[in-house]
Design brief:
This protein folds into three domains: 285 residues, Response regulator (Rossmann fold); 36 residues, no CATH class; 153 residues, IlvD/EDD C-terminal domain-like (Glucose Oxidase, domain 1, 3-Layer(bba) Sandwich). It is built from 21 helices and 14 strands. The strands form three sheets. The chain has an eight-stranded mixed β-sheet with strand order 7-8-12-11-10-9-13-14. Strand 7 and strand 8 form a beta hairpin. Helix 5 packs parallel to helix 6, helix 6 runs parallel beside helix 9 and helix 12 packs antiparallel against helix 13. The longest helix is centred in the middle third of the chain and has 19 residues.
Length: 574
């Protein structure tokens, strides 16, 4: 039975009163061409759309919004499309991560300041999913997430290509002189063939999968290819369902429990998801007042097998994943590791949603007995170089490098990296450890995806394709290699990473979960006394706010004043 009556709807405070404000709201509604009865006693549904002409991942969402509206009308609601900041991984510099929190703030305030009863959140590109969800969680009105869907497989010379992953591999071979310019242009023409986000298990596909695992999407919605006709039908269903959710008063706070986040971490490990997911899940949980310790990710990783045979950790692409049974099939394989009684946006439990799921292609989605790996794809490291933690994606790393001690070659910032990396005189060997500083939340600024440091050309010419690489940066979910990321505290605030010098020995021991700088305490104390805090990157505007209030990677890189569940008063209508 519905919990709410028409007079309980937020929107009615705007549209019903016989007052000057009520008159203004209704008359302006009529100015658009609608009628008073269109909103009287009906849920007003916001459709937050991150479409723009410069976001290729979302280029179809302007059209898809019409299908959402159709669903809202069918269910007796009143749809209102509202544009929000489009975070595009491709074009935004220095990094869209800098603006994730701005999108979250925009969503929260759009929903609070407008006569909205429930919301459909439309997005998919990497930072869009967490940004939209963070804002909706803080506002805490009924909300459903609508993933944009992955693009179709790339195609070149009869080979399927995966965005990001294969581009990097082919670029490496081009740098080594093994790919011609003509072949490179052929890859450029064929790697992105439709709307949608990256079709590898990068951050985009990871975060939409985790949105489903959290219970914030309709079952099966996260991996429908953008070009598949199931996608617009899913959009209609989202429109239908959000109206029902408003009457039921089913809010993010009813769905996003600690158990829901444990489900998401479990799925993250089973799909060998992007390392970025750790930062985003920590931030999402903090918006609910839930603290996710990094060790929780490690404990869950230890018991979860990798089942998604998807690049960069596997062989296939998201189109294959969907037609192999999609996320429901994968979650069905790890059902004993999930909290199946967790609630989801469709009104059913996760267990009910997984009933009847099955794997269609057992090479794309592996059964438990034929897992790609016995434990999850990501682990947490600590040690003298990372007191507050660091992350490594072992499913995309070189096994022989997972226990390694080598001499550091240090780049103080990305400009120095670009200037020196291919210097023939760089004293680098296959045993070296590349270290990048000034790439964290403050140092980047915005913690850019610089963590997959390039292999020096002199080593490429020798056939070397991987090195241990360490930074306070992030790495694209489509990237690969033995890259230690998210070192906390970052170098910009004087963390131990800031004290590393050329020639220092660095020890990586993944089995022992250790990352250590093998330098005496006395020497480190001397270096620390000489360290000077870098000048800020911004002197005004949003950038200055970001530098003042953003937290470190282990805390989710959210603004410190946005975490938690403190209520903000509903706007008064005068």
């Amino acid at each position: 039975m519905p919990k709410r009556k028409p007079e309980d709807l937020r929107s009615q405070r705007w549209f019903v009163p016989e007052s000057v404000p009520g008159f203004a709201h209704r008359s302006r509604l009529k100015q658009i061409g609608y009628r008073r009865e269109d909103v009287t006693g009906k849920p007003v549904i916001g459709i937050i759309n991150t479409w723009s002409e410069i976001n290729p991942c979302h280029s179809h969402l302007r059209e898809r919004a019409e299908f959402v509206k159709r669903g809202v009308w069918q269910a007796g609601g009143f749809p209102v499309e509202i544009p929000a900041m489009p975070l595009t991984e491709v074009y935004m510099r220095p990094t869209p991560m800098l603006y994730r929190n701005l999108l979250a703030m925009e969503v929260e305030e759009l929903l609070r300041s407008m006569p909205i009863d429930g919301v459909v959140l439309m997005g998919g590109c990497d930072k869009t999913t967490p940004g939209l969800l963070m804002g909706a969680i803080s506002m805490n009105i009924p909300a459903i997430y609508l993933p944009a869907g992955p693009m179709l497989r790339g195609n070149w010379n009869g080979k399927f290509l995966g965005s990001g992953t294969d581009a990097r591999k082919i670029w490496t071979e081009r740098c080594a002189g093994n790919i011609t310019q003509e072949e490179w242009l052929g890859v450029e023409d064929g790697i992105a063939r439709s709307p949608g986000f990256c079709m590898t298990m990068g951050t985009a596909s990871t975060m939409t999968a985790l949105a489903e695992a959290l219970g914030m999407t309709l079952p099966g919605a996260s991996s429908i290819p953008a070009a598949d006709s199931n996608h617009p039908r899913m959009c209609i269903n989202c429109g239908n369902r959000i109206v029902e959710m408003v009457w039921e008063d089913l809010k993010p706070s009813d769905i996003l429990t600690l158990e829901a986040f444990e489900n998401a971490i479990t799925v993250d490990m089973a799909i060998a998801g992007s390392t970025n997911a750790i930062i985003h899940l920590v931030a999402l949980a903090a918006r609910r007042g839930i603290k996710l310790e990094l060790e929780l990710f490690d404990r869950i990783s230890d018991r979860v097998p990798v089942l998604a045979n998807i690049r960069p950790s596997g062989a296939y692409l998201m189109e294959d994943f969907y037609y192999a049974g999609g996320l429901r099939a994968l979650m069905g394989q790890v059902g004993d590791l999930l909290h199946l009684d967790s609630r989801t946006v469709n009104g059913h439990t996760l267990g009910e949603n997984l009933a009847g799921s099955s794997i269609i292609n057992k090479d794309v989605i592996r059964p438990r007995e034929d897992a790609l790996a016995d434990t999850g794809g990501t682990v947490i490291l600590r040690g003298s170089l990372a007191p507050d933690g660091a992350v490594i994606k072992i499913s995309a790393a070189t096994p022989r490098l997972l226990q390694h001690t080598g001499s550091a070659i240090v780049f103080r910032n990305y400009d120095e990296l670009e200037a020196r990396i291919n210097d023939p005189d760089l004293p680098v060997t296959e045993d070296s450890v590349l270290v990048l500083q000034s790439a964290g939340p403050l140092g980047g600024p915005g913690m850019p995806e610089w963590g997959m440091l390039p292999i020096p050309k002199k080593l490429l010419d020798q056939g070397v394709r991987d090195l241990v690489r360490i930074s306070d940066a992030r790495m694209s979910g489509t990237a690969y290699g033995t890259c230690v990321l998210h070192v906390s505290p970052e170098s910009h605030v004087g963390g131990p990473l800031a004290l590393v010098r050329d020639g220092d020995l660095v020890s990586l021991d993944v089995a022992g979960r250790k990352l250590d700088l093998l330098v005496s305490e006395g020497e480190l104390a001397a270096r620390r006394s000489q360290w000077k805090k870098p000048a800020p990157s911004f002197g005004r505007g949003y950038g200055a706010l970001y530098l003042e209030r953003v937290t470190q990677a282990n805390q989710g890189c959210d603004f410190d004043f946005l975490s938690g569940t403190a209520a903000t008063a509903e706007p008064e209508i005068h």
